[in-house]
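Protocol step 4 of 6: structure prediction from sequence.
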Amino acid sequence: MSISKIARFSFLLVVIFVILAIFLNFSLIRRVRTFNDKNRDIESHMVQTQSDMDKLMIVMSV
């Protein structure tokens, strides 16, 4: 009787840990994606600023 209770309890623990791991994995993936999107926005903004500076230099040199 006690062995089956221990087995059932350990199985429940394993199931809970698996569910937690899957949930944490998805939340971490979501965080990494939003972080990459922010970096991409910053990079595109920097490229846009650089091209604006190039245009300004061309206009000033004329």
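Step 5 (inspection) to follow. DSSP finds one helix and no strands in the chain.
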